[in-house]
Amino acid sequence: MRRKFPVSLLLTLFFTTLGLAVMGYHPGIEDDGVYLTAVKSNLNPALYPRDAEFFRLQLQATLFDKWVAGFVRLTGVPVAATEFLLQLLSIALIVFGCWAIARKLFDEERAQWAGVALVTAMFTLPVAGTALYLVDQHLHPRNVATALILLAISRILADKRWQAVPLLLLSFVLHPIMGAMGISFCFFLTMTMLEPVHVWLRQWQRVEDGSLAASFAPLGWVFEPPSPSWRQALKTRTYFFLYKWAWYEWLGALAPLALFWLLWRIAEKRGERLLARFALAVLLYGVFQLAVAMVMLGIPSLIRLAPLQPMRFLQLVYFFMVLMGGCLLGKFLLKASVWRWAVFLVAINAGMFLSQRLLFASSEHLELPGRGTNNPWLQAFSWIRQNTPADAYFALDPRYMAAPGEDYHSFRALAERSQLADDIKDTAVVTQVPELGPEWARQTEAQKGWSSFQLADFERLKAEFGVDWVVVSNSQVAGLACEWRDGAVSVCRVP
Description:
Number of domains: 2
Radius of gyration: 24 Å
Distance between the termini: 71 Å
Structural class: mainly alpha
Largest sheet: 5 strands, mixed
Shape: globular
Strand content: under 5%
Order of helices and strands: HHHHHHHHHHHHHHHHEHEHHHEEE
């Protein structure tokens, strides 16, 4: 065993590096517009004097931003380097957790590492209709929570259940929703590891129809009438609504459960006891969570629960589906054939790499700390961070993240300045924090028709909100004092 440890460590580092190289690294995109902004605000309270509520209120339930900021203070490592190092560490722990699970379920080393190889290639696999990837391309508390959950599962499979408890608790305080999903799965896994459960199941194996009842006791806030602005924000997140999913999204939710039912029955017949029980745990977890989601999202009076996104339980199911699929490929198809392994690794990694390059076509694939950029939006954000006062208040196109070449980078996170509410990321925040709805609606309403704004419109924003800087297209600069510009955008003062 000791002789195998260096090999296992080298393979873990190899697949960590390969996974990062394929998925890319993009700090400040999408959800990182909240998390990275909060970290920077914790380190420098002078930042974001006008809009801190658009990230601070959402993160009251997690310690993640305080934890990252504390690491920066303790070590003196810059924020950008800290984010990258923690992202790398979280990927390494995910890789190790996947291997630790596969090692308990499959005896063949080639099967174990084929599972790991498929997972790392598929980090950016979309999860049915949930708007999630298996792993995000930036440091996200969900990445860290996923790693901790995988490690907890490996401890349960090793029959060391109490070692899983602190891992699950830590995942919960970093990402409550993901942590709750992990605790739920580990409950079902623990139950399937108990022999009395299987005695009962054998007694009912011939029963074809069954039902699972899901019950919960919502708190009073669930039944509070939602505000019109909150409903307006909620409508932009169609993936919240299970009953509006397309047929292929439903297929993406149900097919993995059918596959795990099949794996359970086959493994049981083959006498692969632990694999059968793991597959059964995934099946029971999936059926239970789907039932809960259908109740939560199917009763109109429970609409306030929609932002909890109960269908995100599928992220773990997809993780296990990819891991088991890779292990089975390694065991029955790849075996010890070098050329099969070569074709397998090239095929799965090349396709996912290409998809990420197309998705972030205007940005470097690895936006590493200290590395320059050719993206004009990111150049503008960098200039703003270095050349405008910390209390500057900006307005941008409320849909700037979706602008050609912007690649969904967050202004707040990267420019480190306050901005009027946007109509993409701040909308998601409002669904989580309904009290922000009226102010969000007022600010986005004031920015309608942005593409045709001229000097008088910018002066109106200054009079109403105190905006003193804008980021605009070059066709809008007449009458503005622009201090930075390139072929796409300009950074200007409002007179």
